[in-house]
Structures are given as structure tokens and as C-alpha cells.
Amino acid sequence: MSQKSVAVVVVAAGRGERAGSAGDTVPKQYRSVGGQAILARTVEAFVSQPNVSWVLPVIHPEHEQRYAALGLGGDERLLAPVHGGSTRQGSVLAGLKALAPLKPDLVLIQDAARPFVPAALIESVIYSLGAAQGALPTLPVTDTIKRSLDGAEVVGTEDRRLLHAAQTPQGFRFGQIFSAHMRAASVRREFTDDAEIAEWAGLRVVMVPGHRDNIKITHPDDFARAERIISGDTRMETRIGTGYDVHHFTDGDAVWLGGVEIPHNKRLMGHSDADVALHALTDALLGAIGEGDIGIHFPPSDPQWKGARSTVFLRHAGDLVAQRGGRIVNVDVTIVCEAPKIAPHAAAMQGVIGEALGLSTNRIAIKATTNEKLGFIGREEGIVAMASASVEVPRVD
């Protein structure tokens, strides 16, 4: 993409009441983290980027003195702030109108309450606009999402594999998003973010990988996390878990291994689908977080698991890691058998495991070996699988 002018709208017109404790009247964007106001950190994250042409803060009309007290300045790319509207959508439109005379090629729209946006993420959003009309950073959703009509009763479960949490900056071609915002202002609807306006206007919006430190400071507890990010003390520790499983053969025509059905002249005997690879991996994840083994969570005596796909067990283990505030770093599975051949199916296994755990395939290893015709494996009486998993979880002192 040839060099284009890039403007940034920093949306800072909210009152920031949710982030304050009782009696605290300082809006969150003006509160200090690591000795510097959140808004100042956010503005400087963009002013420091050589490919950014202008940065325009949009502030609340009552916050002029607070903004002036930040002492921002010294860079001609930082424009004088403009006043926002009564809603975030109105504030963004005010910023776009103020930028219109400059005729920027691209515009990034950033929440003031995200002060830790990495330079690489900014560059990634800008780069993606070379081929797309809109770009936004996202993170895959790891929690199970329930749907409720009244906030009390569950009526359904969303497919989290299709869900992604949006971050900012959200980037667009200036003329297109300005036009979309002008049209959106004329309808009786409040959009949740600028990407939704772009989608509504028919623009093509692509996703780029977000960053877990690119947090939005919304609630009081977020300030403690922000301080940990600044200090470099995320208070995470690495845990290692291992798993082992074995199943013997019986009459059949296929085996399930790593979530993939492989044609064979036998099948593995078990209460569920007898997928030794996923059983071993599930145990490795459970072991890493001290949650026992697969039999505790899915006892073979329970008829509901009769014939169940082992991806159910694996997703459960992944959910438990996420509920601890952790993340899976990598997993490693070794399958020991004389037959069937594993190598032709390894990539498919990586795909199944990656989908179940929200992992990229470069964090998933599938290996296979024979037992050199020794023992019950060598006699082709069964299959063994071993697995290890590395996870990061918040440290508990």
C-alpha cells in the first residue's frame, strides 16, 4: 500500500463513571495509571507512530480544564480537541466532521480507555486497509456464551467458534466511514461500535489479531490490571500437565484419533468414542490446572457420555483453563500404534484440536511412532497416546 495520510480520532467524551469508586468524581480517562493519565497514554501511543498524520481527541465539553492539565503538546500532529456528543456515536461523528477539511485517506477510531494499544497492532490495522474498507482487531471468545431473554433463564448457547471480541483502533477509509456515520445519524438506532456502522453500510470489514494487553479500562478492577501491565508483573505462572490413555481394539471399521475418524479394520473399545489422543490431551490440560482427570468430569458410569465425541471433553478442559483467567500456550500429543498410519491425518487433527481450544496450529504438535512390534502395541491389540500441555494461569500466592 502506498503512503497514505492517517488520522486518528481518540474518543474521550464519556464521563467514565463505571470505573470510579464511590465518591470518585474523576472521569476514568483522566485518572492516572503508572503515574500518567489514561488519556495521555492513549494519545501518545498514536502520536509516537511515524505513519500517523493527525491525532484528534474528542472530549466532553466540561472537561476542557482537565484536558489542558494533561500538558499534551509539542507535536504539530496533535490537533486541538473538539467537543463530543451525548453518545459515543455522536462523539465519533463530531471528530470525523472536524477532520473532514484535512481530507485524510484513512482514519483510525480509538477508545481513550485503551491506553496499551501496541504499535504493531496500529500498523496491522493500517496495513489491512490496503485491501479492505474496514479493519478491526479482535480476540477469539474463550468463554461459553449463553443467551437469555430475561437475564435469568438460559434459552440457548452460542457457538463461540464464530464469536470474536472487538477492540480498537478500528480503521476505515475516511470518506466511506464518514458517509456511513452521516447516514447512521439519520436513523433511530444506536450502533455498538464503528465496525457495526460499517457493516450496516455494506462496507467490507476484516479482522486482524488483537492483543490481550489492549484492555479497555471500564471497571475499578481494571486499574489494578493496568498497573500490572505497566510494571510487567502480570502475575502469571506456567503450568505443565501430562496425560496418558490406552484403549484396546475390537471389531469395527474405523478409529477416532485426535477428533478425526480414520478408516481401519478395527475400532477402539470405550464408553465414549475411545479417542485416546483427545483423552490424553484432556487429562494433560486438567492436570496443568489441578482439576483431576477426565473420569472425574465425565465418569464412564454416566450413560449421557455413551458414544460421546471426545471434543466435548477437550472443550470442557479448555473452558476450565479460560475460567481461571489462563491461556493454553501449546499442546503436544504422541500416538503409539502399529496401524493405522497417523501422518496423513495429523493436519486434520491439528485443525480439530485448534478449533476446540482456540489455538493456532503452530501451537499444536501431533506425533506418532510404532512400538517396534513389541508388547500389546506391537501385536496390534490397542493404541496408546501420551500428551503434555503448557498453560499460563494467574499466580496464586
TrEMBL record:
The record marks 18, 28, 271, 370 as: Transition state stabilizer. Residues 1-238 are annotated as: 2-C-methyl-D-erythritol 4-phosphate cytidylyltransferase. The keyword Ribosomal protein does not apply. The record marks 160, 216 as: Positions MEP for the nucleophilic attack. Pfam families: IspD, YgbB. A divalent metal cation binds at residues 245, 247, 279. Residues 239-397 are annotated as: 2-C-methyl-D-erythritol 2,4-cyclodiphosphate synthase. 4-CDP-2-C-methyl-D-erythritol 2-phosphate binds at residues 245-247, 271-272, 293-295, 369-372, 376, 379. Coiled coil: none annotated. The keyword Transferase applies. Pathway: Isoprenoid biosynthesis; isopentenyl diphosphate biosynthesis via DXP pathway; isopentenyl diphosphate from 1-deoxy-D-xylulose 5-phosphate: step 4/6; Isoprenoid biosynthesis; isopentenyl diphosphate biosynthesis via DXP pathway; isopentenyl diphosphate from 1-deoxy-D-xylulose 5-phosphate: step 2/6. GO terms for molecular function: 2-C-methyl-D-erythritol 2,4-cyclodiphosphate synthase activity; 2-C-methyl-D-erythritol 4-phosphate cytidylyltransferase activity. Its EC number is 2.7.7.60, 4.6.1.12. Keywords: Isoprene biosynthesis, Lyase, Metal-binding, Multifunctional enzyme, Nucleotidyltransferase, Transferase. It catalyses: 4-CDP-2-C-methyl-D-erythritol 2-phosphate = 2-C-methyl-D-erythritol 2,4-cyclic diphosphate + CMP; 2-C-methyl-D-erythritol 4-phosphate + CTP + H(+) = 4-CDP-2-C-methyl-D-erythritol + diphosphate. InterPro entries: IspD (IPR001228), IspD/F (IPR026596), IspD/TarI (IPR034683), MECDP_synthase (IPR003526), MECDP_synthase_CS (IPR020555), MECDP_synthase_sf (IPR036571), Nucleotide-diphossugar_trans (IPR029044). Its cofactor is a divalent metal cation. Residues 239-391 form the 2-C-methyl-D-erythritol 2,4-cyclodiphosphate synthase domain. In the N-terminal section; belongs to the IspD/TarI cytidylyltransferase family. IspD subfamily. In the C-terminal section; belongs to the IspF family. Bifunctional enzyme that catalyzes the formation of 4-diphosphocytidyl-2-C-methyl-D-erythritol from CTP and 2-C-methyl-D-erythritol 4-phosphate (MEP) (IspD), and catalyzes the conversion of 4-diphosphocytidyl-2-C-methyl-D-erythritol 2-phosphate (CDP-ME2P) to 2-C-methyl-D-erythritol 2,4-cyclodiphosphate (ME-CPP) with a corresponding release of cytidine 5-monophosphate (CMP) (IspF). This is Bifunctional enzyme IspD/IspF.
